[in-house]
């Protein structure tokens, strides 16, 4: 290695450690132009490109690492699988990569866990269980480097094989494992406690269930620290309302848009967005896009500081961003080009409805909502990404955030009353036909009673609700808060403080 090349490599590594990703990418490329055989550099370049959302380039970098004999190639195949599955929605390629990893190392736990998760997203229960059972068969090996993932496999298995009675051995397994997992990290312990909570809930042991969920959320708070800032949430809501006031340019009548249109489904997390997307996906004119982060990344990146960057309208910029978003949709879902809508059901897109209407004046928005106590409890009972849902681990924080969400949605509906349809989950499970007929009329879609068979779709569902939406419509989750009412004092109080009616 020449002295110059070694200097470039040291600079690339230093930039990487400093988080200066774009500069690090340039340095790695400069180094690899001189030393293309350096497999570790190709691997590191792939990591950086993925972090910068340059997914095709990341796949190419990983391919170079594989072609040149990288160490532990199964890890590279795993990384490629994650890109294909989570970011490019190409599940067949993801499965191919995972199977390539397992061909090299049949006991590679990360690949088995990811393959099991992919099967779950497709509704392939027995195939998922087969993957988790393989993991658990080797879970007791001495010095297992993936013990935390083995605990996750146990939690997932318990979700797929819920206990049949209070004497079911799975309850003892979960209790024992949750105590043992404490030394392996709070996230591993939380996974097991949430699985224990769901198991008790399925047996109507609600006090025991709530205790398990509470301890699981405490583990997550200990792991991440409290990330929700109530004052900051209020400031953001204030800024959004001020930035998009009544009478601003984007509320003027929109000209018709041609071609497939984005259809936005948003609201609180755990408010029924996956369910309604699944119903809509049963219509031949609708392609399910799932949770897309394009607009939120745009707001946090090129449009930063957002929403201040939107105070002065910029039609040329907005037109370019609109076309970029459309191209992104069609790149991910080329099959949707022949239809009327491709859905984007990222729940917290409700924060950027002003941006949506700036980019797509004719956009239709489905706002999912449900009883605030049910919504808050469901968030508390589910492990969610703390970087996105920082309020999820504390009932008081959930109630406070819900109040800001309600305030924000009231503002958007005052600006765009004809563009926003309130989809009430509780009303839907009571009277599905009338609710859906109104929704389909709002979207100018032809109604057919067969669309109530949404649970028979063979599509991939990439949210925590992937098993719920594969069941016929059921009302058990509506009114669930009553089973836990005595524990919901902090949530009730925070909602009352925000002016939200809860009874």
Keywords:
503 residues, mainly alpha, 5 strands, 5-stranded parallel sheet, 22 helices
In short:
By secondary structure, this protein is mostly helical.
Alpha plus pi helix count: 22
Written as H for each helix and E for each strand, in order along the chain, the element string is: HHHHHHHHHHHHHEHEHHEHEHHEHHH
Largest sheet: spatial strand order: 2-3-1-4-5
CATH third-level topology of the domain at 253-497? Rossmann fold
Largest sheet, in brief, is: 5 strands, parallel
Global mean pLDDT: 91
- Find the structural class using helix and strand composition: mainly alpha
Strand fraction band? under 5%
Specify the CATH homologous superfamily of the domain at 253-497: P-loop containing nucleotide triphosphate hydrolases
Radius of gyration: 24 Å
Q: Helix fraction? A: 55-70%
Distance between the termini: 72 Å
Which spans have pLDDT < 50 for at least 5 consecutive residues?
251-256
User: What best-fitting shape do the alpha-carbon axes yield?
Assistant: globular
Please name the CATH architecture of the domain at 253-497. 3-Layer(aba) Sandwich
Number of strands: 5
């Amino acid at each position: 290695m020449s002295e110059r090349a070694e200097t470039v490599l040291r600079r690339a590594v230093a930039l990487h450690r400093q988080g200066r990703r774009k500069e690090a990418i340039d340095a790695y490329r400069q180094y690899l132009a001189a030393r293309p055989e350096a497999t570790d550099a190709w691997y590191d370049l792939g990591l950086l490109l993925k972090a910068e959302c340059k997914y095709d380039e990341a796949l190419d970098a990983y391919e170079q690492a594989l072609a040149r004999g990288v160490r532990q190639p199964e890890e590279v195949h795993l990384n490629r699988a994650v890109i294909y599955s989570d970011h490019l929605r190409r599940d067949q390629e993801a499965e191919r990569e995972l199977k390539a990893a397992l061909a090299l190392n049949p006991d590679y736990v990360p690949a088995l866990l990811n393959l099991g998760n992919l099967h779950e997203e497709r509704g392939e229960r027995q195939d998922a269980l087969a993957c988790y059972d393989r993991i658990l068969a080797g879970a007791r090996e001495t010095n297992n480097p993936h013990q935390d993932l083995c605990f996750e496999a146990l939690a997932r298995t318990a979700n797929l094989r819920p206990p049949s009675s209070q004497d079911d051995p799975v309850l003892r397994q979960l209790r024992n494992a949750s105590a043992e997992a404490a030394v392996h990290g709070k996230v591993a312990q939380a996974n097991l406690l949430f699985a224990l909570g769901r198991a008790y809930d399925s047996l109507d042991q609600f006090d025991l269930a709530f205790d398990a969920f509470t301890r699981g959320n405490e583990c997550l708070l200990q792991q991440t620290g409290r990330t929700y800032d109530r004052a900051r949430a209020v400031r953001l809501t204030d800024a959004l309302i001020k930035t998009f006031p009544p009478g601003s340019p984007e509320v003027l009548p929109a000209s018709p848009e041609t071609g497939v249109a984005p259809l936005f489904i948003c609201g609180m997390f755990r408010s029924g967005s996956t369910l309604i997307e699944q119903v809509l996906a049963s219509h031949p004119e609708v392609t399910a896009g799932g949770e897309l982060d394009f607009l939120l990344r745009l707001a946090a990146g090129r449009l930063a500081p957002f929403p201040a960057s939107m105070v002065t309208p910029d039609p040329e910029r907005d037109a370019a961003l609109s076309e970029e978003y459309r191209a992104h949709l069609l790149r991910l879902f080329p099959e949707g080009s022949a239809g009327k809508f491709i859905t984007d059901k990222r729940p917290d897109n409700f924060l950027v409805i002003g941006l949506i209407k700036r980019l797509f004046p004719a956009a239709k928005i489905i706002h999912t909502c449900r009883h605030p106590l049910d919504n808050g409890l469901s968030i508390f009972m589910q492990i969610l990404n703390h970087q996105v849902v920082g309020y999820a681990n504390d009932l008081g924080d959930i109630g406070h955030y819900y109040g800001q969400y309600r305030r924000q949605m009231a503002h958007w509906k005052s600006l765009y009353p004809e563009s926003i349809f309130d989809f009430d989950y509780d009303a839907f499970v009571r009277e599905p036909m009338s609710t859906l007929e109104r929704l389909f009329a709002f979207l100018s879609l032809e109604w057919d009673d067969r669309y109530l068979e949404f649970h028979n779709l063979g599509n991939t569902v990439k949210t925590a609700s992937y098993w719920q939406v594969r069941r016929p419509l059921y009302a058990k989750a509506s009114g669930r808060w009553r089973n836990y009412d005595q524990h919901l004092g902090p949530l009730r109080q925070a909602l009352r403080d925000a002016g939200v009616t809860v009874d």
